[in-house]
Amino acid sequence: MKGCWAIASRELGSYFRQPAGWIIIALYLFLTGLVFATGVLIPGRVASLRDFFALSGWLLLPVAPAISMRLVSEELRSGTIENLFSSPVSPAAIVIGKYLGASIFMLTMLVPTLVYPIVLRMYASPTPDPGPIAAGYLCLILLGTLYLSIGLLASTLTPNATLAFMVTLFAILGLMFAGTAADWVTPPLRAVLRALAIGPRVMDFSRGVIDTVHVVGFLSVSAFFVFLSVICMEARRWR
Fold first, then answer.
1. Cα separation of 237 and 229, whole Å?
2. In the predicted model, is pLDDT for residue 173 greater than 70?
3. 233: nearest Cα among 95, 100, 74, 96
4. Residues 102, 106, 111, 112: is their CA dihedral positive or negative?
5. pTM, entire model
6. Domains held by the chain: number
């Protein structure tokens, strides 16, 4: 566990030592600020962040792959992965540590957006209900960690960070459009696609509905992708 946290702190620090980390934060805050200014701060409209959270999947779409694309790809490209393999840290600890580092960075990125509900509470009347806001942020966290788990797997499969970015991007888009695609396939596959679809889950969270089925679904799929990443890392170690 100590080695896992060492990897996580190393990964987290790397985001803030490089311009890319600050650019990712700036990009996300620009996108969220644009949505907040044009879709939430509308005179005469009920104060709510529902639209903001309903678009959370799209707001994270360009950001999460950018966070995850270098997690393992850069190690593979530069050859430093051999140093990690020769250290007293298991492949599972390496993968989980990198995933934790990226997840903590993502949580740090979300912190400045807390100013949006504060602004609504200060200037909107009536003040927004905190329940849907809490549900919306829970959705952001679950969705972000899911996206990062997909990106982590893509990053373990190739030393090309750009390719990892593209694979992650299209995989996320596949999940976002799974519900729509379900209407065009046969019943057995339709049930699978609807189970994987994230759109309905995000909409429920944006309305303030915290369904344990949705929470377990997000966590289970994220854990599955992390597990696959561990398997890929183990295979690389013994190749």
1. 12
2. yes
3. 95
4. positive
5. 0.90
6. 1
- Domain containing residue 107: 2-238
Tell me the average pLDDT across 130-141.
88
Residue 81 per-residue DSSP state = H
For the chain, the residue count is 239
> Nearest CA to 14 among 91, 82, 68?
68
Q: Whole-angstrom distance between the N-terminal and C-terminal Cα of the chain?
A: 25
Q: What is the C-alpha separation between 10 and 99, in angstroms, rounded?
A: 12
What confidence tens digit (pLDDT) does each residue in 87-101 have? Answer: 778 888 889 999 999
Buried b (16+ CB within 10 A) or exposed e, 51-62: ebbbbbbebbbe
DSSP string, 108-155: HHHGGGGHHHHHHHHH-SSPPPHHHHHHHHHHHHHHHHHHHHHHHHHH
